[in-house]
Structure formats: C-alpha cells, structure tokens
From TrEMBL:
The keyword S-adenosyl-L-methionine applies. GO terms for cellular component: nucleus. Residues 746-759 have a biased composition (Low complexity). Transmembrane segments: none annotated. Residues 323-418 form the Protein arginine N-methyltransferase domain. It comes from Bombyx mori (Silk moth). The keyword ATP-binding does not apply. It comes from the Eukaryota. This is Protein arginine N-methyltransferase domain-containing protein. One of its GO terms (molecular function) is protein-arginine N-methyltransferase activity. Residues 724-759 are annotated as: Disordered. Gene3D superfamilies: Hnrnp arginine n-methyltransferase1, Tetratricopeptide repeat domain, Vaccinia Virus protein VP39. One of its GO terms (biological process) is methylation. Keywords: Methyltransferase, S-adenosyl-L-methionine, Transferase.
Length: 759
C-alpha cells in the first residue's frame, strides 16, 4: 500500500509543479487514504498545496469548494493545529465568526503555544464585542446615574419602554425593575443582542424582548406598538457621532406615542481651546520635524478617513493647558422633534468666540458633553470634573491650525453639523497635507529621529570605505526614509523606499524636492501588495529594515522581506540597520487593564453580566500608550530575547521587587541602530511604537523577593506571546525519622520506590 501511496504523492507533486492544485490535492488525499501511516511525513507539503489552492478559490469566491477541501483535510488530520487555524481564518474572513471562534479555540486547546491562533481568537472577540463595552459597564457613575434617572422617570404599570442601542441590556434591566407594561430592546449587532439575551435571562428576566435590527429601518409594528418611554445611550465622545439625531428623529416619527418622552431629556456640548504637544503630535507634524525636512510652512496632518475628531482621555495628558474659557457650542432637546430636525438640516455654522486666558499657543480644540437625564439628574464627561463619567472619552478636533495668542484675545471658530456629526470649520487660508499615522508618528518621535540623524556621519564613513558616495545604493523601509534622504543629500546614487498610500508618496516627493534631491534617484513602492520579488537582483550598500508595527506587534510580512533583503541583497560588508532589536518585558499591576478587559458585577448594580461578557476577554492588548498607561511595576524590566532574526522561544528570570497580584506583562523594544551605538527604548510616551500587554487568564499572586520566569513563546509562524511562569514552591523538607527501635517505624519513614519514581 505504501508504494501505491508514494506513486500518488509523485503525481501530486507533478500536478503542483504545473499549478494544477485541485488535482494535486486529490492525489494527496488518495495517498493518505491508501496508507494513513505516511500522512504525517507529507503533511507539510500537503498543507502548502491546500494553502495555495484555497487562496485561488477565495479569489474566485468559491466558498463551498474551499470549505469542502478543509473538511476533507481536517477529517484526515483532526488534530492538526495549522489546518484548524487556517480554517478559522477563512471562516473569519467570510463572516462566520462563531465557527471561526470554535476552530481557533480547538487549535489552542490542542497546543497552548499556538500563538497565531490565540491572536486570531482575540481578533474575533474584538470584532464581536468592542473593548469600550468593558469600560462603559465598569463605570459606576454612569450606571447608577442612569438607573436613578430611569427610576425617577418611569411610571410603573403604565409605561412601555424602548431601549435603542441596548448593548448588554443594562438600561432595559434598570427599567424592568420598575415593572413597566413592556420592555423592548434593539441593537444593530447580532453578537450584542445574543449577549443581551444571555445577560437578561441569566439575571432571571425573561420578558424583555430583544431585537437585532437597525432602528432607522424599523417601524412601530416591528417593536410591538408605539412606546411611551425611549431610553438610550447612543453617544460618542462628540455626542452626535453615533447618528443619535437621525435615530431619534426616526423614533419620533415611528416609535413614540403621543404621550411619549425620551431619556436623556436634553444634552449640551462644550468646547475649549488647549495646548498639549503630547496630544497634538498624534495628529500634526511638529515644527521641529518640519524644520529638519525643510518644509517649515507646510501644514501636515494625519490622514483622517473623513473622521472629524478623535477620542482621548484628556485628563491623562500632563502637559495639557486650558488656554481659553469654555463655551457651550450646541444645546439639543431630545424631546423636541422640531429641534432634532433643525439640527440635522442646519447648514449655518455654530459660531463660538473664545477668550484666551494667557499668552501662548492653541494647538487643539477639545469637546465634551453634559447629559440631562431628567430635570434633576445629569451626567458629564468634563475632563476637569471629579464626578465625570469615564464611559466616554473627550473629542479632540485635531485639524485646528495652531496659532499663537495673547492674553484676553478673542478667537473665533466655526463648527458645522455635517450629516448629524460635529465638524470643525476649515481655515480657508491654510492648506493641509495628509499623511498616514505611521509616517506622522515616526517623524514626531524626536528621540528616534535624533538617533537616526546621529548615525549619518558614522554610516557615511563606514560606507565610504566600500566605495565612493556617488555609487552608494540604499534601501530604506522606514515609515519615512529619513536615513535614505540624508544619504542622498550627501551624494548617494539611489534610494528605494516604501509609501503606505498615494498621499504619502506625494508627501515624499514634496520633501525630496524641498531638499533638492532629484526624483530620478528615488523609487517609491506604494501600498502593501508588493513582495520581495520587486527587488530583483539588485544589491544595496545599506539597508534600513522596519518590521515593528505601530501597535507594538511584529509585522511578519515585513520581517520576512527585511530578512530576505539582509541575506540576499546586501553587498558584502554592507550596512544593515538596525543592528539588533531586543524585546523587553516587565510584570505589572494596572487598574486600566482590569476595567478594559473584565466586567465586575458590583459595577453594574450586581446584575449578572461578568459571566457572559468576560468570555470575550482577550489575552493580548496592543496600542498601549506609555504616556497614558497608569500601572504599578512589580518587577524590573528584563530582556526576553531578540527579534532581529528568526525568533525562537526564549525566557528570562526576574526577581519580584514588589508583591501583589500581577494582571499583565508589559512589553516594548530596545533598538540598537548601529552596532555598539546607543540603544533606543520604545517604552516611552513619545515613541512611534506603542507597547503591548499580555494578560494572564487569572491574576498571578507574587511575593516580594521571589524569582519568576518570563517565557516568550514563539510559534512556527513567528507569532509570539509573553507569559508569567508562576514560581514552583520548593519541595517540602523530608520528615526526620523518629527515634525508635522499631524497624517497621523506620521503614515507614522512608519514601517508597513508587513515591520516589513519582517525584
């Protein structure tokens, strides 16, 4: 049988060589059916075939054939974690999220070191349940204030309630406590409606009707008749961004009875001019960088994808100064349909006049709101209020052009209601150039930029020993090719670099022209569709690699390209940067981690939410801003391996310096640009690379002075995670045999052979 099976394997390889992948797949399956004993031997090449085949089927949208192939494969290899993970990725891609969850979970169950499957499972959880749900539900101020307002407003045994944007159903359960005639809850997310059903029924409430639908597509028949009380919390940091005006206008026309009302009753949005370099560098290119690039008068802002503001926890920015008085921008009466319609149709600007409080610069405008839930009860998101609700962040209108002001100066700004969402009016005298976040943050990382500039002289001397500067060719894959630009200015022959978007490419060209660099020397690759074949047979004197993602993770595609360039396209004796990248880890305790990844029932008025929502807790958290994360370090930082070449599983021992319950491992990188040159840490608030957190399933109790192991597990695909290996308690000291003349007593005091073997 094995000989016949091997013939099928040969046929399969021939079909693979001619790209007849479907036939090759069939041949492999026949071989394995004939002789199952050989299947593990040929599994790697079989899996390569099914990966290529399914990529082709996916491009042709042949889902049924794709999943049939996976079905056959998994029946042949039921415990193959790679196949389970691959199936999960396609299920995720095509929107079968529950099925994807199951396959990722099965892969992790078979091998907890399958990091890629774990990351994929986290992606499913993030998609199904937004992380802000945890923050919102853990906000006791919001929950208790809404509960009190609902109790003060609702008429027992008279009102019928509609909860729009119900989420986990908390507001509906608050209403249910007052025994209304009926409660109906609506949410656009299928996952959240299923979760709301679990939460309400788990709390013993069986008569709340929960519907999965888009409210603006429904009428009163869909909800069982018109309702007398509508409750909602469909607000974002900018108050109106979740289409609350459209939703409530539709509700007045379709859902609310003649005696109906809405909770909250009213809302008011406030704005203020501020200065914060730490805040604005996320959105605008800073003046020092523009001077370095010879574009001092260019307004360079983040590519906004039609977003008019961002959301931030403003109170965490230590350098933020309130430069003006606070102004009320918009007041809205949710119980007045005409007012809602007027806001929606308004084309005239909302004009605001600020009075400056001191001399200085205004480089951003921030906004927050008050919700007047009833005549007596209100909530605020004012960052300066100790009683603010932390369920919502504050709005940052990042396209404000920085301006220098004097004390008591009047500043006028216009805001518009654009499609039911507030926008800051454009300065007609200022043109804005847009670039990707990767470029903006890279160029605004002053410490890293200074380090790159500090390498130029040494690199020039080093490369000058190889050949004349006019012959030097460079590949710079940094978000912006600063090293390459500086070398071109010194006379280098050519540069190949990467721009994420066409807007970025236009920006690159502006900078090259401003520095009198001929564009004929520059080849700019755009997007991420290109691969290592684009480099052909070219060789480079210097290569600057970049595979660290903004979020703190490693971009495995870019790492493969960087290593390919380093090993196959670098001239002998050439310069590769960075010389080394080390991963640094530190065990911490952080309240922020707790409230953003787990719900605590005591925060939701003791309703049984945690059991259901905490199934969606994740084990990895990226995009951690070191300038904003509040935490307590339980150990010193320690290196847990390198990242420059192929990563392997590694570990490090570290002593606990402060006892307590650890709930995360905080990680960042130490980058050595050139050998024996100073290292730059990304564990800074102004770093262009964020930190990452690895979260244990349960908090780990640590004692001060004990030694623990941090383990960096790396799977075959290069994905990694860092875990705390709890200290193993020392074996108990053997009991001293009692002084006795009884030989049997002496024998009983000795360990048996079986016990020794077990130890």
């Amino acid at each position: 049988m094995e000989e016949v099976a091997k013939e099928y394997i040969n046929y399969a390889r021939q079909f693979t060589s001619t790209n007849s992948l479907s036939k090759a797949f069939d041949m492999y399956m026949l071989a394995f059916e004939k002789c199952p004993a050989i299947k593990n031997r040929y599994e790697p090449e079989f899996r390569n075939v099914i990966i290529q085949l399914n990529e082709m089927l996916a491009e042709d949208d042949r889902m049924e054939d794709l999943f049939n192939n996976f079905g056959k494969s998994i029946r042949m290899f039921p415990t193959n974690i790679h196949l389970l993970n691959d199936i999960g990725k396609y299920l995720y891609k095509f929107g079968f999220y529950s099925e994807a969850w199951n396959h990722f979970h099965d892969a992790i169950f078979l091998d907890t070191g399958t990091v890629n499957a774990e990351k994929n499972l986290n992606s499913v959880k993030n998609l199904l349940v937004d992380r802000w749900q945890y923050r919102l539900l853990n906000d006791k101020i919001r929950n208790e204030t809404y509960r009190q307002a609902i109790h003060d407003t609702l008429k027992p045994f008279k009102d019928t309630v509609l909860d729009l944007g119900t989420g986990t159903g908390i507001l509906s359960m608050f209403a249910h406590e007052l025994k209304p005639i009926a409660v109906t809850a609506v949410d656009t997310s299928e996952a959240m409606t299923q979760l709301a059903e679990c939460v309400t029924q788990g709390s013993g409430i069986l008569d709340i009707v929960i519907l999965n639908n888009v409210p603006t597509t429904m009428n009163f028949l869909d909800i069982g008749g018109k309702r007398s009380l509508l409750i909602t919390e469909m607000f974002d940091a900018g108050l109106f961004g979740e289409q609350i005006l459209q939703t409530l206008t539709h509700a007045w026309e379709n859902f609310i009875s003649n005696v109906g009302r809405i909770l909250p009753k009213r809302a008011e949005f406030f704005v203020v001019g501020v200065k914060s370099d730490d805040l604005i560098r996320k959105y605008q290119l800073q003046s020092s960088t523009k001077t370095l690039l010879n574009i001092p008068n260019l307004n360079v802002h983040i590519l906004n994808h039609n977003e008019t503001y961002d959301s931030e926890d403003v109170h965490l920015y230590k350098d933020l100064v309130y430069m003006t008085d606070t102004k009320s921008l918009v007041k809205v009466d949710f119980n007045n349909p005409d007012d809602l319609m007027e806001k929606l149709k308004r084309t005239e600007p909302y004009e605001v006049e600020f009075r400056t409080k001191e001399k200085g610069e205004i480089n951003a405008v921030i906004g927050w709101f008050n919700l007047y839930l009833s005549d007596k009860i209100s909530l605020t998101t004012n960052p300066r209020s100790p009683k603010r609700s932390n369920a919502w962040q504050q709005a940052v209108f990042f396209d404000n052009i920085p301006r220098h002001v004097k004390e008591n100066e009047t500043i006028k700004l216009d805001f518009f209601m654009n499609a039911g969402k507030l926008t800051l009016g454009k300065d007609s005298n200022s043109h804005i150039v847009r670039i990707s976040p990767e470029i903006l943050r890279f160029l605004n990382d002053a410490e890293f930029i200074n380090a790159v500039m500090g390498c130029i002289g040494m690199a020039s001397v080093y490369l000058g020993q190889m050949t004349d500067m006019s012959q030097i060719s460079i590949a710079d894959l940094s978000p912006f090719p600063l090293f390459g630009l500086q070398m071109l200015k010194r006379g280098a022959q050519s540069l190949i670099c990467v721009a994420k978007t066409l807007s970025d490419k236009r920006f690159f060209k502006k900078v090259f022209r401003a520095n009198k660099v001929s564009l004929s020397k520059v080849n700019i690759l755009v997007g991420d569709e290109w691969d290592q074949e684009v480099f052909g047979e070219d060789k480079y004197h210097a290569i600057v690699g970049n595979f660290l993602d903004l979020c703190g993770d490693i971009d495995l595609r870019m790492k493969e390209i960087c290593l390919h360039l380093k090993h196959l396209h670098l001239l002998p004796g050439g310069l590769y940067m960075p010389a080394e990248i080390r991963m640094i880890a530190q065990v911490i305790r952080s309240h922020w981690v707790d409230i953003n990844n787990k719900v605590y029932d005591e925060n939701v008025c003791d309703f049984k939410v945690a059991t259901h929502l905490n199934r969606f807790s994740i084990s990895q958290n990226f995009c951690i801003d070191f300038g904003l994360l509040e935490y307590e370090a339980l150990t010193d930082p320690v290196a847990v391996g390198t990242c420059s070449e192929e990563m392997v599983t590694d570990s490090a021992l570290v002593v606990v310096k402060k006892g307590g319950e650890a709930n995360a491992v905080l990680c960042w990188y130490s980058i050595e640009l050139m050998e024996d040159l100073c290292e730059i840490s990304t564990g800074r608030g102004d770093s262009f690379i964020d930190g990452l957190l690895y979260l244990p399933p349960k908090n780990v109790n640590l004692e001060s002075g004990e030694e623990i192991k941090l383990l960096r597990s790396t799977d075959v695909e290069g994905a990694f995670k860092v875990t705390i290996e709890p200290p193993v308690p020392p074996p108990a000291a053997p009991k001293e045999p009692e002084e006795s003349a009884d030989a049997m007593d002496e024998a009983a005091a000795l360990p048996t052979a079986a016990a020794a073997a077990a130890v």
